[in-house]
Amino acid sequence: MIHVRTEIDRPSPEVVAALGRFSAATIHEAQGRKGALAHRLKPVDPAMSFCGPAFTVEAQAGDNIMVQVAISYARPGDVVIVAGSEFEQAGSFGDVLATACQSKGLAAFVTDSGVRDSADLRTLGFPVFSGSICIEGTVKETLGQVNRPISIGGRIVRPGDILRGDADGIVVVDPLEAEEVVRLCRRREDHEARIREQHRRGDRTLIEVHGLTEKLKAKGLVVEE
């Protein structure tokens, strides 16, 4: 049995950078409201954000030996993302491992388990997203797998999938669809810019600007003046 696959198909840095210019919410909407990971996976600091290819890890609950293995083999720009059975009652990652990640030039660390040393993580600034914050430690006993498809946050994430995370959450983009998603994001942002400008002018109601007049009429909305 192979535990670690070091080679994955990574998207081009140009595509990653292009997606990274858009928010996770914009990407989610633009690609048809798909790819969002569970809302509980949030950064330890709302200012943290990232975009990069997934370097996937399957770890046992309360055990971070494969986390350390994965960090050792990940490359600059990678996002180490760990499926740890959603075990929140342990801090599987802290400031020491974050320092190691940052020194290697990794893009971020994501886990559905817990992390700790949250104050130090915020000071360090390396993007860390987790399901919880917990002071309890982990063991280093059971082997898992690195760079196999994992189930995390209600989605299947494959090695090399593009992950975009910010204060609102994390979205997954299929690398084969990434260039089209970038185009759709630009179109969405242009559309929203036009809507904001109409709101600033103030010469139409919100219902009119958002195109809800006929829909509300069809649904029988009654307003008492």
TrEMBL record:
Keywords: Magnesium, Metal-binding
Database matches in InterPro entries: RraA/RraA-like (IPR005493), RraA/RraA-like_sf (IPR036704)
Catalytic activity: oxaloacetate + H(+) = pyruvate + CO2; 4-hydroxy-4-methyl-2-oxoglutarate = 2 pyruvate
Molecular function GO terms recorded: 4-hydroxy-4-methyl-2-oxoglutarate aldolase activity; metal ion binding; oxaloacetate decarboxylase activity
EC number(s) stated in the UniProt entry for this protein: 4.1.1.112, 4.1.3.17
Quaternary structure and partners: Homotrimer.
Protein name per the record: Putative 4-hydroxy-4-methyl-2-oxoglutarate aldolase
Lineage, opening ranks: Bacteria, Bacillati, Actinomycetota, Actinomycetes, Kitasatosporales
